[in-house]
Amino acid sequence: MDRGAWQLNSKVKGATTNQCAFNGPCSARAAYLTESDAGTFFDAWVTYQVNAFTRFIPAAQDAVTTLRGGAIASGLDGSCLGYPADRTAAAARLANCSATVTGQAWTLRGATLRTSAGLCLTAGSRTRSAQVVLRRCDGSRLQDWLARSRAALYNPAARRCLNDPGAAVKPGAVIGDAACNGLRDQAWFRP
Question: How many CA atoms lie within 13 A of 2 on its CB side?
Answer without folding.
Answer: 8
